[in-house]
Design brief:
Layout lengths: L2 E3 L2 E7 L5 H13 L7 E3 L2 E5 L5 E5 L4 E6 L2 H4 L14
Antiparallel strand pairs: 1-2, 2-6, 3-6, 4-5
Length: 89
Amino acid sequence: MGFTDAGCEYYCIMVVSGKEENYKKKANELLALRAELHSSVQFFTKSMKTSKGEPYQEAVFPGYVFLKTDSLEQVKKIDLMYEDAEKID
């Protein structure tokens, strides 16, 4: 069960680690086709620096993305789950 914030619910989705950004992009493309849902998939990163001071981005929650929606029942009708990890490149 997700938690509610201003009429929206948030759900955690486990994905292949390292493919979070790709999953987010493809899922948001599918959700955009149904704009009335007011849904999005989010992935959080943090800015880090190497020991040499070079900046890079690192996942806050590796292997997870977050679905924000106002209608989980409608989102369930959209195939956001990819059975084959190769579909997400």
